[in-house]
Design a protein that fits this description.
It contains 21 helices and 13 strands. Strand 6, helix 12 and strand 7 form a beta-alpha-beta unit. The longest helix has 26 residues. This is Leucine-rich repeat-containing protein 14B. Belongs to the PRAME family. LRRC14 subfamily. Keywords: Leucine-rich repeat, Repeat.
Length: 519
């Protein structure tokens, strides 16, 4: 793919393309050319050159997102290239920066920022081998511990111990890398490379370990907290978390499935919910909240009304919301600020059409992403949906998988979607008429793939033709049957699978033991 490159950048590419020559010549390179050479090396996947550039980095900061993003010399954004060769070279170069510089007194590097790296589904790097967030967490922790061991065992220059570099990173911790990361965080005050956790994601982790490691990350600095799969956090644990730790900079919070379950609510639970709402109100930076697959019927107002800052992103998919919940959302001060909204799993057109469209209308001036999966949107609702979406002129993403819509209705809807000026991504369902007659919605996993694939391909072609004829080649339309791509889940799916099998086995054993006791 051709991109605009300056003569300077083309020269930089030529310089780093001969790795041996470039490495020998680095000492004679002007300091202000290091960023340029770094991006050129990254583009050409010159791992050895990247390592030496970082090892000899002459500037105060090293911000990977900025260095790889769009620049005057090269417009191509490389921040979504999580190339394993390049990233490993960056991190080992950083370790060797601490160890191998001839004179520690001239070292200027104070901050390394790894948070701008974006994990995406399609990689364009030549090696095709990625280093995801989990692997970056693992490698940085390992290098920090190795560095400590080396410094303890070797006679180093006194100045080496005075080096202090903050390494900003989005940590991803599971059972498999927990011990390593916990050790690195525990000893970070002794290490020249200080792990500074800006965002934290946890999957497949026992609660006790989660509480221990979240304390080690320094919650005061945390901006994003994601507790996602197989962390058995329930409402009482969330209350303990918020009562025992403060998250003043937290902007984004994702809670695991079934954190809340109002079906079994007692007076104590009501008090807990009130307390959680009040604690979230103290998080004055909080603008993104995801709590899918909890049961929150009739309690949305109690949870969200204390918030003093309006939410920009809200995911309440499959939360069993009722009319009162939807009415609160439509009339709340959050509505005018919502840039991303997920109401999947709610029978929107039948249960609360007027309040839903009021919510859509109030958020229309800022709404960028709307997800309405498994919402029982049928052919008879399409005109109403078009009417509701018409004011949403900033909409970039619309996902509506799992709805019983015919091929004809999808064509009608796509004709309208072409009119949304900044729309970029559409996830649409397999048409109802591609499935056997009598299929019931929501479709279970076993039946999800049992449709006429040839007919689907033909309809998908027609839908893309509608986009093409409207000069909307910029819109990507797809049907990811099992949901959107999740880079973190993709990276750790083997561990997740093993955890689920272990969980299932333990449940079976408990059930068998219980039966044996009864008999």
């Amino acid at each position: 793919r051709a991109t605009m490159k300056s003569l300077r950048f083309i020269s930089a590419e030529a310089f780093v393309s001969n790795a041996e020559f470039a490495r020998k010549s680095l000492r004679g390179v002007a300091h202000n050319l290091f960023p340029l050479l770094f991006k050129a090396s990254y583009l050409l996947e010159q791992g050895e050159v990247i390592h030496d550039l970082v090892e000899n980095w002459p500037l105060v900061d090293f911000n990977v997102g900025k260095l790889l993003g769009t620049t005057v010399d090269c417009q191509e954004d490389l921040s979504h290239r999580t190339c394993s060769v390049c990233l490993e070279s960056c991190l080992t170069g950083l370790r060797d920066y601490v160890l191998n510089h001839p004179s520690p007194y001239v070292k200027r590097l104070k901050v390394v920022d790894l948070t701008g790296i974006k994990d995406v589904e399609v990689q364009f790097c030549e090696c095709k081998k990625t280093m995801g967030r989990w692997a970056r967490t693992q490698l940085l922790s390992k290098l920090c511990l190795e560095l400590l061991v080396y410094l303890q065992q070797t006679q180093c220059h006194q100045g080496t111990f005075e080096i202090s570099i903050d390494v900003l990173i989005d940590l991803f911790v599971t059972e498999r890398n927990y011990e390593l990361v916990a050790q690195a965080l525990l000893k970070k005050c002794y290490c020249p490379l200080k792990i500074c956790c800006v965002a934290f994601r946890s999957d497949n982790l026992a609660l006790q370990k989660f509480f221990y490691i979240i304390k080690l990350t320094d919650p005061l600095l945390l901006r994003k907290l994601e507790i996602v799969h197989n962390v058995r956090l329930e409402m009482e644990h969330l209350e303990i978390l918020f009562n025992s730790m403060h998250f003043p900079l937290l902007m984004s919070l994702t809670l695991p499935a079934r954190t809340f379950n109002v079906r079994r609510f007692t007076a104590t639970d009501e008090r807990m919910l009130t307390n959680i709402g009040e604690k979230m109100a103290e998080m004055t930076q909080l603008t993104e909240l995801s709590m899918s697959f909890s049961i929150l019927t009739g309690r949305i107002q109690k949870l969200l009304s204390p918030l003093k800052t309006p939410l920009k992103m809200l995911d309440v998919s499959n939360c069993s919301l009722n009319h009162a919940d939807m009415a609160y959302l439509a009339n709340s001060f959050h509505a005018n600020h919502l840039e991303a909204l997920d109401l999947s799993g709610h029978n929107v057109p039948d249960l609360y059409p007027s309040t839903f469209f009021k919510l859509l209308s109030r958020s229309s001036s800022v709404l960028r992403s709307l997800t309405l999966e498994d919402c029982n949107i049928q052919d008879s609702h399409v005109n109403m949906l078009i009417l509701g979406l018409s004011p949403c002129q900033k909409l970039q993403e619309f996902k509506f998988l799992g709805n019983p819509l015919s091929s004809q209705a999808l064509k009608h809807l796509f004709t309208f979607l072409c009119e949304l000026p900044v729309l970029k991504n559409v996830e649409f369902p397999v048409p109802r008429d591609c499935y056997p007659i009598g299929i019931t919605y929501p479709i279970d996993d076993a039946s999800l793939c049992r449709f006429d694939h040839q007919k689907y391909e033909s309809v998908a072609e027609e839908l893309n033709l509608i986009l093409l004829q409207a000069n909307r080649e910029d819109v990507k339309a797809s049907t990811p049957l099992f949901g959107s791509y999740d880079a973190a889940l993709q990276e750790t799916n083997n561990e997740l699978g093993a955890y689920l099998i272990k969980s299932f086995k333990e449940t079976l054993e408990k059930f068998t033991t219980s039966l044996n006791k009864k008999s």
